[in-house]
């Protein structure tokens, strides 16, 4: 079955039928505001943290799947009074469409459809720097008759904390609050109490009416596919008080043959300083909403914001372009892998259609690795990320395995003990310096354990990372695995018979015996980067000292990590060899040499252009490097 | 709008239309297995713990509301080939019905409906002692023509841990496992790894086919209201592997005019000893399933189990019956309040349509109070509960505010510091002894903090409870409130500016100043029970000592807790009076005297029957006692 194709020229993936086997989504947003957007306009958005500051409600693993998003219901009333209600993004009504197309582009998506002479277009994106989604809706009369249309928008608000929102009903059925002013619907739950922010769902034209109470809009026991208000054709101006606050505009649209009209919907997040929360008793201060909407009051303004986003992405992808004999290789390395790396950098797997956004936050290991694929795109953001990550490191060099993007604090629930983690900080910092030459970052003061009083330079963080591995070795001189190495499922010290208990967080056996050959390999893979950093910053003695530690580790691998044919994988908590001979373990390719980019660092820019092997930066998983470089000739053009 | 009525004779509430403003539910189950069952067959079931061992998936706050349950789809194929698909419980298809009725009775519910000459009846209950729901389905042909019907059952399995089930998709989309044998569908996710239990969804007749993969059954992007398999009329024998395991039987039913057929569906929970998990490689040991199903193989056997349940409830409610001039009073006190007290005892508010079953477990305070309304029904279970609760008490007399029903361990997340909690243990134990005369419970050894090495007698637990209040007093000699007193929202020491942070679990201000007059009142309300227990168990010195402490507390209330017109409510963390004069606080009625049931304890049974005031046991909230007793004459008949 063919569901779509790549449009390389437009840098878009084009989905040609709505009923994809699973929702195919795009990630909107480049900075702090993000939206997950499926090919049928499903999904949700949040500000900075998918758990703590979620604007719209979304039900994972739902029936029907992907029910919930930014919906537009069209009620097309013909001259004879016959009524046709449909949803142009196919879902939630699964409307039969005469045309359908969804284009997922760089930070935006465009759904185009048509039914019975009425064409619909929705361009959805998060503008640069602003905290909102824009949905630019165009209706076009392709028929020969006048069209009378009632359009109803629909979103469902999340009461901010997405986890509480789906578990604590005793509370959250009682707290929903909204405020309405003209065409603007404000979601202000908890604003009276401890929040200084609200959400906004607005359209740039006058409305016939609105609804903010879900049950009023949908009717009893109705799904999103049969909202009572839409089928009755008249909004009820409901004001949510508790239960489920939603946002729906009712707009009357008259279209002559060939006429088009465009509407700009804005779904935004607004904050006020604590002392400027109120405009009057119980009336929220709308200044930030005014400022936000002032920028997107017309279709032209919204188009301009989209053009700026396009320019931004053109610039980003212009830094590293790829031509290859294999068109798919060029497309992947030149466009989609870089796009995906940026998404990964932004979300660090915290929110997708498989990560519910409430579970984990950002990974220490992951986020460092993500840098490799991202650092050439926006190095200054990579720099900020490195400092955030390093601040969650413990004074002994170990690290919280995860941290919350909003608070930037280590996640106590999962804790520490993933003994490969510290090494990835060296890997990430080295990648950043290789790309930027910014050795100054090494002198930045960074807290340990988010505690300013424990702050020291980033270089000291790297040093602690390095020696954490050196000093935490087992009987064979190989690194202790702790809870896991790169393979989170290799829990040599974690034994649990309790159903549902996480192997990652269960009490550690602390055998003092279980050793990971893979961590040893990572050590001799990133260790030379640390040595090189020392050398290049006038720390020759430390470089020599570290180099010796690497040699010692290589010795340990040779003596105890090599089985004659293959490297061992590990020693378990009982000292037993894991994956001896019988299992095929990856050989450690090129890991004993300093990675080539250091050598080229001192060459001219021109010379760098001539490199014929890819930077590790292309790929988030460095071990895949050799595999790629041998199969495909890649030329760096800019 | 009239949605139903009470049938006092049958002890049932009769719902006469399915589209109630909110799902109206019954609680099935008396022991360890429980089902929440709405008037349209929505809801879910679990074994012992709604969070840890949930059998079926349920989505709270869903759209449509209450979508998900035990569903039966009927596909009625007429002689001319025309097809009528409908759901006799109305939801999920919202089928138009010629008749509809739901009767919620004592531990069972009965849905009856009809459409186009086909009558349907569903009797759902949890049999005594067994770990299953039974759904007895009868189809009756009321038409003059033969009927050819395809019946499809449908449930959706939860992957046991209900919280993980709705958050951790990276994992749970990959782990679903089933096994099918004839008419039995086994849900065995994680059984291979750490679980020793599985779920069973079976019917007592041969099936045409089955489905266990949700998407196969429903089709892409379909809701429960339009399952593809049903509309196509043929099951696909899908075997779930990951994604969403469901259970659907496909049964062909032929009915002559006036003919009826009955089918017994069993939804059960089965456990195996660790060393008897397997019948063969990868094949689960089905012995417990065999044993379970052997009891419910025929409609007659299922009827017998229902009759036993009816007898059980008749016995329970026969212990305390009420005749009153006010029929509603008699109905409430004689039937529904007692029924509700049993439900509350079983669930302690941990699962309802407003408590998601994953949030809180059982309350220390709540569970003690629940005893008051339950103790006369099944005293031996009340006894067990008291010992469970007491085991979560800390050695200093304070207590975990909540504990998990499955593990019976204190809940660390919410912790301690609700300073009224300890006193309710005295209240609950006193109620138990008054009802049973079982002073022996005071000699039971009970751990502190679930630690056997800290165990001491239950009497010592009561003593520590009593003196926890005595020794934790503030500047006015009134009890320190800690995090809260009976009013969880009166957080005089808990200040938080962080949105979403719980006032109950945020770091305690620990002013050492905030005092609760209400805790003082609770103390002098339950304190005399402690004194009386001492006296009746030969602890005269301790009785005198405790009586003096009560007098001291009364003195503190009179001196510092009385404002001239009203009692104060509290002193806050800054020593400021709360609710002085301006606010109306409840007067402490009859709290200074020993409660009358002690005095009557020594009278003959006959004399007890003549009591004209209700026991506190009727009501879960003792303060409501006086209110009731003054308005209504209640006669205890047995």
UniProtKB/TrEMBL annotation, chains A, B:
Transmembrane segments: none annotated. Signal peptide: none annotated. Keywords: Glycosyltransferase, Transferase. The keyword Glycosyltransferase applies. Residues 11-275 form the Glycosyl hydrolase 94 supersandwich domain. GO terms for molecular function: carbohydrate binding; glycosyltransferase activity. InterPro entries: 6-hairpin_glycosidase_sf, 6hp_glycosidase-like_sf, Gal_mutarotase_sf_dom, GH65_N, GH94_catalytic, GH94_Enzymes, GH94N_CBP, Glyco_hydrolase_94_b-supersand. Pfam families: GH94_b-supersand, Glyco_hydro_94. One of its GO terms (biological process) is carbohydrate metabolic process. The keyword Transferase applies. Residues 312-585 form the Glycosyl hydrolase 94 catalytic domain. It comes from the Bacteria. PANTHER family: CELLOBIONIC ACID PHOSPHORYLASE, CELLOBIONIC ACID PHOSPHORYLASE-RELATED. This is Cellobiose-phosphorylase.
């Amino acid at each position: 079955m063919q569901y779509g194709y790549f449009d390389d020229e437009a840098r878009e993936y084009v989905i040609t039928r709505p009923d994809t086997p699973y929702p195919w989504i795009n990630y909107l947003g480049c900075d702090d505001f993000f939206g997950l957007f499926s090919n049928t306009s499903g999904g949700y958005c949040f500000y900075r943290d998918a758990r703590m500051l979620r604007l719209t409600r979304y039900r994972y693993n739902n029936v029907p799947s992907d029910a919930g998003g930014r919906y537009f219901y069209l009620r097309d009333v013909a001259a004879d009074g016959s009524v046709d209600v449909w949803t142009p993004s196919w879902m939630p009504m699964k409307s039969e469409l005469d045309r359908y197309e969804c284009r997922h582009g760089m930070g935006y998506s465009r759904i185009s459809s048509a039914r019975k002479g009425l064409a619909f277009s929705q361009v959805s994106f998060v503008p640069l720097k602003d905290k909102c989604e824009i949905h630019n809706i165009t209706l076009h009369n392709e028929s020969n008759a006048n069209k009378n249309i009632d359009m109803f928008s629909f979103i469902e608000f999340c009461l901010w904390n997405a986890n509480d929102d789906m578990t604590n009903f005793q509370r959250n059925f009682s707290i929903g609050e909204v405020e309405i002013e003209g065409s603007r619907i404000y979601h202000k739950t908890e604003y009276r109490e401890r929040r200084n922010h609200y959400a906004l769902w607005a359209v740039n034209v006058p409305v016939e009416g609105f609804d903010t109470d879900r049950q009023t809009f949908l009717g009893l026991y109705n799904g999103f596919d049969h909202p009572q208000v839409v089928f009755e054709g008249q909004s009820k101006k409901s004001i949510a008080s508790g239960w489920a606050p939603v946002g729906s505009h009712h707009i009357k649209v008259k279209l002559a043959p060939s006429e088009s009209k465009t509407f700009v919907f804005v779904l935004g997040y607004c904050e006020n300083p604590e002392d400027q929360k109120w405009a009057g008793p119980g009336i929220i201060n709308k200044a930030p909403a005014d400022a936000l909407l002032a920028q997107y009051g017309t279709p032209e303004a919204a188009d301009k914001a989209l053009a700026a986003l396009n320019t931004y992405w053109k610039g980003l992808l212009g830094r590293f372009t790829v031509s290859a004999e294999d068109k798919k290789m060029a497309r992947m390395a030149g466009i989609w892998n870089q796009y995906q790396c940026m998404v990964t950098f932004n979300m660090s797997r915290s929110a997708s259609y498989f990560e519910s956004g409430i579970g984990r936050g950002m990974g220490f290991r992951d986020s460092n690795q993500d840098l490799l694929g991202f650092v050439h795109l926006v190095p200054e953001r990579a720099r900020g990320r490195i400092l955030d990550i390093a601040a969650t490191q413990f004074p002994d060099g170990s690290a919280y395995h995860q941290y919350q993007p909003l608070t930037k604090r280590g996640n106590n629930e999962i804790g520490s003990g993933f003994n490969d983690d510290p090494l990835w900080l060296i890997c990430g910092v080295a990648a950043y310096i290789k790309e930027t030459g910014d050795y100054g970052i090494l002198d930045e003061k960074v807290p340990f354990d988010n505690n300013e009083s424990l702050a020291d330079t980033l270089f000291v963080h790297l040093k602690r990372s390095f020696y954490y591995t050196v000093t935490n070795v087992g009987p064979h001189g190989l690194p202790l695995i702790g809870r896991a190495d790169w393979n989170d499922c290799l829990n040599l010290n974690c034994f649990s018979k309790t159903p549902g208990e996480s192997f990652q967080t269960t009490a550690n056996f602390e055998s003092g015996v279980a050793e990971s050959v893979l961590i040893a390999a990572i050590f001799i893979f990133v260790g030379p980067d640390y040595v090189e950093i020392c050398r290049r910053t006038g720390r020759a003695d430390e470089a020599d000292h570290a180099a010796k530690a690497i040699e010692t580790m290589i010795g340990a691998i040779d003596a105890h990590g090599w089985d004659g044919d293959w490297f061992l994988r590990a020693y378990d908590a009982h000292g037993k060899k894991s994956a001896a001979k019988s299992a095929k373990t990856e050989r450690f390719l090129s890991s004993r040499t300093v990675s080539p980019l250091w050598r080229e660092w001192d060459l001219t820019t021109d010379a760098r252009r001539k490199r014929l092997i890819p930077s590790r930066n292309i790929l988030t998983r460095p071990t895949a490097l050799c595999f790629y470089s041998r199969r495909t000739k890649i030329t760096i053009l800019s």
